[in-house]
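just leaving the lab so this will be short. below you get a single protein, a line of residues and a line of whole numbers that encode the local backbone shape. id like you to explain what the token line says about the fold, in plain words if possible. thanks a lot i owe you, the record is right below:

…
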Amino acid sequence: MADTANKLTIFMYPWFAMGHITPYLLTANKLAERGHKITLVIPPKAQSKLGQLNLHPDLVHLRPISIPKVEGLPAHIETSNDATVLEQQLLRHALDLTAPTVKSLLCDVKPDLVISDFAYWLPGLARRMQIKSVHFSAVSPAAMGFMFTGGTSPTEDDLHFPLSIKLYKHTARDLEWFKTAKEMGSGITMEQRLTTAISESDAVCFKTCSEIEGAYVRFLENKLKKPILLTGPLLPNPQSSSTDLDEKWANWLNKFTPKTLTGFPFLIALRPPVGFDTIEEALPNGFTERVRERGFVHGGWVPQQLILKHTAVGCFVTHCGYGSMWEGLMSECRLVALPHVADQYVQARLLSGVLKVAVEVEKGDEDGLFTKEGVCGAVMAAMAEESGVGEEVVVNHEKWRGILGSEGFQDSYFDAFVENLRKLLD
């Protein structure tokens, strides 16, 4: 632990999504290990889910914030995990409506630094209150790099953005929505929200390391002309976490032989598709009964990292959200990439095409469709010991897991991150 002098007071306000809130809490824990004080503002339901992961409640204050009423947004929705695509737009509008409450909290906390992401108005508010701000990105430097190259595969003219990542044609069309579609309530595009948040901040932060994404970090430093801070991989220290897997999941997983494909047992966590309120309504008639002894489909949030650590889990089919990307890299599971939207495609290509630690499910270039045969083939390729592809991804995965998990690796990055936060205050 660092010396007790010159401790920071930090105010964190992430977007109302578990994939955003979780890395903020992990960062808060690591800051608290070094004696710093953090106020993390999140919805009440998120606090009830993640409160047990707060390892330093004396220094990490989880402050609940009420979700303002927005027409068309059901009262029970507090995070994007429980919302449809349309409801997520309204939830972002609700986030914007919390600005007066957040200003009052800042006056109460009097932080040295504000760390946020989707609240594009917060860096400007912080500046007017003479508080430094950091944009803590929930996507990779590689994905953000695509945003600053127009949302298409970049060329050498784009400040030498690394050319090893290429995207499907249908992904470029999806990214066009990101640039042009104005959201209900706020009336701004997602690109406007993020570019404003980034440009108004004093620095940009990523939960990565230069060994993995150094080329993309250098590209952004040239493009943004502001400090890029790296926390290193943000994952709980197994030795410091006493959290066990819930009995519901543990009992089901304990039925299976470790690390095998026998009978293809599966556990899937999905959001309900458009037009359905629950995942159960969307499943074919009789499906649950047919797979009851070997399959489990869940429509809500699951403790993914704890599940990946279970001995029965041999393969992780990931949507390649940034948090899931890191959890997959640090796990012992074979990795299969099945991205669905936006930044996930870039991160899938980072895993499968650059690091070569995953097998990516083939999709149609124009339509983005995939088949059950494609998913099965990717899983088999990743799991088969005699497969050339499977052997390559296993060797590369073990290499990177060894580097990322080596003694002192994460701590050295995080110590440098804290020092860089201090430099912003000079």
Q: What stands out?
A: The chain has two domains: 9-233+407-425, 243-404. The chain has a mean pLDDT of 87. The longest strand covers residues 37-42.
